[in-house]
Task: structure prediction
Amino acid sequence: MSVLIETQDLKKYFKTPRGWLHAVDGIDLKIEEGRTLGVVGESGCGKSTLGRAVLRLHEPTSGKIFYEGQDLMALKKSEMRHMCTKMQMIFQDPYSSLNPRMSVWQLIAEPMLINDMYKGDKDGLNKHIEELMDTVGLAKRLAHSYPHELDGGRRQRIGVARALALNPKFIVCDEPVSALDVSIQAQILNLLMDLQDDRGLTYMFITHDLSVVKHISDEIMVMYMGKCVERAPKQELFANPAHPYTRALLRAIPEPNIDKRGELEILKGEVTNPINPKPGCRFAHRCPYAREGCMETETGLQEISPAHFVACPFCKEING
Amino acid sequence: MSDKLLEIKDLHVMYHTDLENVYAVNGVDLELTTGETLGLVGETGAGKTTLALSILRLLPDRTGRITEGEIYYNGTNLLELDKNVMAGIRGEEISMIFQDPMTALNPTQTVGQQIYEALMLHNSNHLSKKELWARVDSCLEMVGIPAARKKEYPHQFSGGMKQRVVIAIALCCEPSLLLADEPTTALDVTIQAQVLMMMKELRERLGTSMILITHDLGVVAQVCDNVGVMYAGEIIEYGSLEDIFKNEKHHPYTVGLFGSIPRLGVETERLSPIDGLMPDPTKKIVGCSFAPRCPHATERCMQEKPGLYREGSHQIKCFLYTDESKKEASK
Result:
């Protein structure tokens, strides 16, 4: 299968009064057409920034992004805007990402009007909007409602319809279900998976919820403070988590299973500030297995088994 | 004193606005024994928070009203108490951890002052200022914050640390009942695990009873003794952890709730969510509140409220089981 999206050493730093904040610090990723890459991490690890940087919604500080082999960083602003018809985003909060003064119809029409998709062809536009509403499961009678009249699940469906309006191939889903209740969350997850089957979409799915990411992804990337600490196919990552952070993350999730009560593993400390980070492994000061060398030497990703990359030189010893 | 710490009988709460009436809690019966931890699960709008606010009588003055029912705490009906007496109970006997640590703290006061305030208002032992500040130090250390940080302001703390401060405020007067409203929802998983473990430890040490409100079944499985599942202002299923997580018999809503969550340990191709949405709380519901979304609904569910089916500690409000038990009884 062909690679749709690829990044090389992608970096995004933000300038703050106290120094450079390394939000995304050298990420390499590849997503094949029709597959889903899940990006997991805690708040502040740079996963949303990564999603935006891939679409150049945040201008990357350095690094390269390729879409079907085409270098996006070499494109001018106007050319990049045209690329946006192929790459779209679903935003996290359906309560704040929709303009409250636009009706559902206007919201879904907006991307098509901006890109002159149906110039002068009002019937065509109407038909497409109806189709889209049908695809995402919004009743036709809602076309002239406003977002405040709808609940979170329906609003997120509008967000999905907007992202689909231009028939993109690649969609960055930035925590699309975190703001929703579980029963609604399941409806949206099913919708996204059905759309992928029908249209061959490629997703980059950003979330902090490991059980959601396990459900929807093919490959998973775990991020910690702007760096990728582990990347592996789904089954492999959950069967053999190698990086100490991934292992701790997996064990910190309370499972709805009373036989596993009291097995939460507690990781000490908290994520520190990613402003002007010191060299060395960024997880070292929270890592239960950290040794002297960890604080000083940077560790790149190593392939420990086919397609399984880990940024910890001692993972084999640790996992025994 | 009986071992029943809290008893709620047929509680109805309504929010009254200019345009409409919202029926938030519709007939909740609940008991809590000393030392017990009860989990209340349900989705947004199920009435979980309203129930907790009613116990503390903190419902918004103009709009919220308890229309029916009684809440007994150690045998006294809280709803009949004088305002001032209630203020004494609030914080000292029953206290609450609010959902969002980012907004629950006063940004213009140091965290020390905020803990001190609670201690000072409930200073029944007439401790001196110095003694009270010593208590502030010990409270902060109890939740794992160095006492030296008492002079800092909330914005200098991270989310997890702020939630620890909120917990310290709630526990500083050593209440016998703690209402925790989604205490870890706003936190990351590794921090959530830290806070949950800390709450568990403190509860065991201080012997506090707790009502934990959450929508996360995983948290319930880790922390609680008993579980109540709320839907549209009613408790539709109640039982011990075993009853809810192991037993075969369940309310169709509980089945839907479990079917909706992707599980780490279990491979599922497709989630099985519940169709449809919560009923409109501005309309009084005739019949079972879940009937319009229920795969087993019959004509009768639309017209009649189902009774309570009991089996040991397990209670389910659904005709599926009440009928079954009647049949068995007639045999």
Notes: The longest strand of chain B covers residues 4-16.
